[in-house]
Amino acid sequence: MVKNIVFDIGNVILNFDYKKFLDKYTTNKQEQEMLEKYVINSPEWTEYALIDTGYIKREDAIKIVQDRTNHLYDELIERFWNTYNDYAYIDNNVLDLIKKLKNNGYNIYLLSNSNPYTYNYIKNSELFNIVDGYVLSFIEHQVKPYESIYKTLINKYNITPEESIFIDDNIRNVEGANKLGFIGLKVDPDNYNSIVESLRKVNIR
After folding, report:
1. What is the CB-side half-sphere exposure of residue 187 using CA atoms within 13 A?
2. What is the pLDDT of residues 144-202, one digit of tens each?
3. What does the alpha-carbon distance between residue 41 and residue 46 come to, in Å, rounded to a whole number?
4. pLDDT score of 205 more than 90
5. In terms of Cα–Cα distance, which of 155, 191, 153 is closest to 173?
6. 46 falls in which pLDDT band (50, 70, 90)?
7. Which of 187, 169, 115, 176 is nearest to 150 (CA)?
8. Share of the chain above pLDDT 70, in %
9. Which residues is 135 bridged to in the sheet?
10. Rounded CA gap, 159 and 189, in Å?
């Protein structure tokens, strides 16, 4: 019997499609490609999640990437990294769904690769007040899909994985949860309907 539902935050609760707002920073395609390659997919951000694990600060990452790009785009890199959260927003439909699930008796937890800057951006929202607990990568110095962060959640809240659904938009993270016994659901990024349909398939309404 399912007792717990664990949500990722980014692109599940917090909508963040960077491709939709790159032109807010520059309409130059070469510069947009630079931001995607050297910032978003950098080791500091996505590839090795050095900021999300809390091992380096954003200011350090900016300097590293500026060096890596031979200081050709210094202002653009700094401006993007310092303000991209302005274009992210919490999906209120997902918040309402979480409230409904709690009212139906499920425990709700968050398990997210997240950095302190995004956390500070959303910490005053309803989200952290309505869930039963959360594990964030920058606090634990652990990231999905490695098993240590799932075990941190399990041990911190005495969760039985076989009684828990895990929802994420990244298939590797879902597979990591499945290995430990969670019922993993891969959902489409920034898509409330995908979450609802995925839960229906496991008889959660």
Report:
1. 29
2. 999 999 999 999 999 999 999 999 999 999 999 999 999 999 999 999 999 999 999 99
3. 5
4. no
5. 153
6. confident
7. 176
8. 100
9. 111
10. 26
